[in-house]
Amino acid sequence: MNAPTDAVPPVPLRPAAPLQPILRRALEEADFAADVAVDGHSLLVSVLTIRVPWCPTTAEAAQEWMRTAGVQGDATWDEGGIVVLHLHEAPAVYQFMTVLEPQISAHKIAAGLRRVLGELGVDSVTDASRDVIDVRLGGDDLSAVVVLAERLGAPHIAKGLELGRSRGLRRLAERFRYLLTGVVGSLVDDVYEPGCAHEGESLTLYLSPAQAGRLLQRLNRNVFDGSRPTDVRRLVVHSREGS
What is the pTM of this model? Predict the structure, then answer.
């Protein structure tokens, strides 16, 4: 007679459908445009964005990405030519959200930069992807760069520069790059674009999420301290007079 065994019956997998609101919120935080619908016990994620972690933007590529990312499910085309991810079980939903976490984090940092730069009166536009957060600084004679430099501890960054000339603005952008590299602890990529008849000059910073996080932390400390920026118009006039 065989001895009795204490085998534990397998735990049934949880369906994905109840996680619809959680997945919707995660996708919104990741700026991943998609419609999430319930289909029985499953969730159907209709992908409406072209900013996806698979390439090309096809159902076949999405299926391969799901396999390599450990997201159990299927990717198909719908009748309108949209890629739909079929997530049948809760573990697949949680894994999908785990894969999205770096993108969620990057967008939270970008949102934080938008908030604090707005509070500091800095003219800027920010955008984010999984790996890069870009911050575009503008204003007359790159006034946003001058204000931000002051908040980062360099109130005389424009001294001796003719900010009404392209050469002076390029020098300002170069100085600011060195300043920001010191603040975030690693080399920062940036692109200076001269103004034209329809658009003013700008300096776009390309930051990794880690660099952007350090910049946000530094600026938040300045806001908490309650210090106020100097009038940028006075700074610009001073820089021209001192050239």
Answer: 0.77
